[in-house]
Design goal:
alpha+beta; 6 helices
């Protein structure tokens, strides 16, 4: 009987709960020029002109001073990419290309060779290729415009080549650190226990509620195999902290399964005040000295629907909370007010987070 009514337990892989410190992606950024546009470029923007001058100078060409090339077919762009851990020279990266200035569309353009820099100012990749743009923009002669998605940004699959690898220090040191995505002391302890069970007692130590220190084997091959085994371990993840997330801008309300509501009676109603104005024009009698006047006529109505109180029993789970909300039939905006009132009344066993 206890097994039938116990709460379900779900196993989670360790790799889904966090990641090893140092094994992360690095952001790359660069400046470049996109050419081959059908008259949708930057026109005469100075930084686009300078960029093209720098590009053609590689081939021994020089634009005379004071000459404005009116670059309708070129655009200045920023190029961004992520360099994954252990990326080696020669591997390909996907890049995103975004217009910097007044370019209306990058559709049909080609990115000219552009270096991509890391946070340390060093070049880690070179980018070049034909853009794939999912957006479309059309301008009519009368000034009307039609835009679908964003035509001033695009992507190039495999558009960058890695030129330099990043030293992660993976093989250095005696320990590896595993950082959880979210602070949870219970999960940190269970991960350490699972590692000790697999590799022997004392292998893992919980430093805090978000970090587990692991005594690692020496050598890249041994450490890589150890990480693979650790990431494949399954643990019974702890139930998350009870939270109610309210987006005040959109009215979105998200309630997780750990939320409980104590016994409470809830009623909700709106007072509607309606004023109808029906002014009437009054004409004077013929041959009189009266003047035409407007006679005001107002009709005031007050409506307040009779909404009986709804009882929520103590210890209600997520399904029962949803049923109660549906029975009350309130819009998301009013639901926020009810949740705040339940929190103030001490009947909501959860953290109310408003974003």
């Amino acid at each position: 009987m206890a097994a039938l009514f116990s709460a379900p337990v779900y196993a989670e892989r360790v790799k889904d709960l966090g990641q090893f410190q140092g094994l992360r992606a690095n952001q790359l950024t660069g400046y470049g020029i996109v050419v081959g546009l059908a008259g949708t470029g930057d026109d005469s923007l100075i930084y686009a002109t300078q960029g093209v001058q720098g590009t053609v100078s590689r081939f021994g060409l020089t634009i005379p001073p004071g000459v404005n090339p009116a670059l309708k077919n070129a655009a200045a762009v920023l190029v961004t990419a992520e360099l994954p851990p252990f990326a080696k020279p020669g591997q390909r990266l996907d890049i995103t290309v975004s217009a910097m200035g007044k370019a209306k569309s990058l559709r049909g353009g080609t990115l000219v060779m552009a270096p991509l820099y890391g946070a340390d100012g060093r070049i880690y990749a070179m980018a070049q290729g034909n853009l794939v743009v999912g957006g479309l923009g059309v301008d009519a002669a009368d000034g009307s415009k039609l835009s679908i998605n964003i035509p001033s940004a695009g992507r190039i699959e495999g558009g960058a080549t890695v030129e330099r690898s990043v030293d992660t220090g993976f093989t250095a040191g005696e320990h590896l650190l595993f950082n959880l995505h979210q602070f949870d002391a219970t999960n940190a302890g269970r991960i350490a226990d699972a590692i000790d069970t697999t590799f022997g007692p004392g292998t893992a130590t919980v430093l805090d509620g978000a970090t587990v220190q692991i005594r690692a084997a020496q050598g890249g091959d041994a450490r890589t195999r150890m990480i693979a085994l650790i990431e494949a371990l399954n643990i019974n993840a702890a139930q998350p902290r009870a939270r109610v997330i309210v987006n005040a801008r959109t009215g979105t309300v998200v309630i997780n399964g750990a939320v409980r509501v104590g016994a409470a009676a809830v009623t909700h109603g709106k007072l509607t005040l309606k004023v109808d104005e029906a002014p009437a024009v009054v004409q004077p009698a013929p041959f009189s000295r009266g003047v035409t006047a407007v006679e005001q006529s107002s009709d005031i109505k007050v409506e307040e629907p009779a909404n009986p109180a709804f009882l929520i029993k103590g210890g209600a789970n997520l399904a029962e909370i949803v049923d109660a909300i549906n029975c009350i039939g309130v819009p998301p905006g009013d639901l926020v007010a009810i949740l705040e009132a339940l929190d103030q009344a001490g009947a909501l066993t959860a953290e109310l987070v408003i974003i």
